[in-house]
């Protein structure tokens, strides 16, 4: 079976969440049925959002160094369970020369399958993820461009960013209250489905908590990893 | 900061549980405060309990190979969040030539700190862990031998092993009822503290559920990892 290399630690809780979602996506009756994973959880990688804003060092070299560790340890395939890190996806892939799966593609594919290509897709993500166009500019080769609904700038500053910070700091009830309020605002403006484009958000938000079908980008990537590794196993 | 290498996948859920306990044991306000970890979760390592019983291949070569991957990826220190794998601890350490922390030592240290060296320590663990002497033969260099209390053979067959199986199968209330009954029997025979020497047991048993102070060996190892890496950081 192919060994998945996980470029992790961005943040460390999101890495664990991704690993758990890979287990949940695997039909397994015993330990030995599970996907082999090598995980490099290096929380010292420079902050992605700060770098995007021009307030900090680029994380590219640290991400590539982490990828080389995974390569040394025998990874066949690389994933990054961090949305913002995907701003450097093309550079990382070019330097590592290993197959990589793209988190946003996995999320868009599931959103289209769930809600159809006419659906209005609400997006909850960090300021950097939204402002960089990581989601809104991404196209699947065989699908029309999605119809996006974004949080307002006020909602970003008062609900979404403080909500994500609260989750990162372990204050989960606070994070849930703030992010659910942002989700309700998107639902009121007509969102049919919510794409959760930040690894921290699904830790506190699901369909029950926000009253809309949700696509968890982390879980979508996990399901794609399992499908890919099991295909490689059968091949 | 030192990078911890985690020899994982034995089983994969226990690996994730250990990683989460490392996060919980870390005083951190942001990603960059967390301990860097490289995790090799290779569920294809042969079954440790079967090997102990003489019913399967030795896991030693696979564990060492997993350790070498961690070494290639830059781990400074190795831990194995699996009790039964510690039957091969000395061989693994000898072949890897890297510092390793011992799960049982971490648990014994916490039990001594919690209950004192005169305390009677009840042990809940798998048949293989208990019968192999993994806990009862282990000595801390600076402490007298613990005063152990074990479940009876009848309690092992009727309560402890079915309780662990129930947890592994996701039947948590059944598992809790069985394991709490085994804990009460140890308490009635005079146990002052309970050492939980199996990664599944702390998922359903805590001080509230069994009326005794408990030591979770996985959490004890996690706390020792954090203390060690943060010391290395300050040094």
From TrEMBL, chains A, B:
Pfam families: Asp_Glu_race. SUPFAM superfamilies: Aspartate/glutamate racemase (SSF53681). The keyword Isomerase applies. Keywords: Isomerase. The keyword Transport does not apply. Belongs to the aspartate/glutamate racemases family. This is Aspartate/glutamate racemase family protein.
């Amino acid at each position: 079976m192919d060994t998945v290399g996980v470029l992790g630690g961005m943040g460390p809780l999101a890495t664990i969440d991704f690993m758990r979602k890979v287990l949940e996506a695997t039909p397994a009756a015993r330990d030995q049925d599970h996907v082999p994973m090598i995980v490099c959880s290096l929380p010292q990688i420079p902050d992605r959002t700060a770098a995007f804003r021009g307030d900090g060092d680029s994380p590219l070299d640290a991400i590539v160094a982490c990828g080389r560790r995974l390569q040394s340890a025998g990874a066949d395939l690389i994933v990054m369970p961090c949305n913002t890190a995907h701003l450097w996806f093309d550079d990382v892939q070019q330097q590592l020369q290993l197959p990589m799966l793209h988190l946003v593609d996995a999320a868009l594919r599931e959103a289209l399958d769930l809600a159809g290509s006419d659906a209005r897709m609400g997006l909850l993500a960090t300021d950097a993820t939204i402002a960089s166009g990581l989601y809104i500019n991404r196209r699947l080769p065989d699908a029309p461009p999605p119809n996006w609904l974004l949080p307002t700038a006020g909602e970003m500053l008062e609900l979404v960013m403080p909500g994500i910070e609260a989750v990162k700091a372990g204050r989960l009830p606070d994070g849930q209250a703030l992010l659910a309020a942002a989700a309700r605002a998107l639902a009121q403006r007509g969102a049919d489905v919510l794409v959760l484009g930040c690894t921290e958000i699904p830790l506190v938000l699901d369909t029950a908590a926000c009253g809309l079908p949700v696509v968890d980008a982390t879980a979508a990537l996990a399901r794609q990893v399992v499908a890919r590794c099991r295909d490689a196993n059968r091949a």
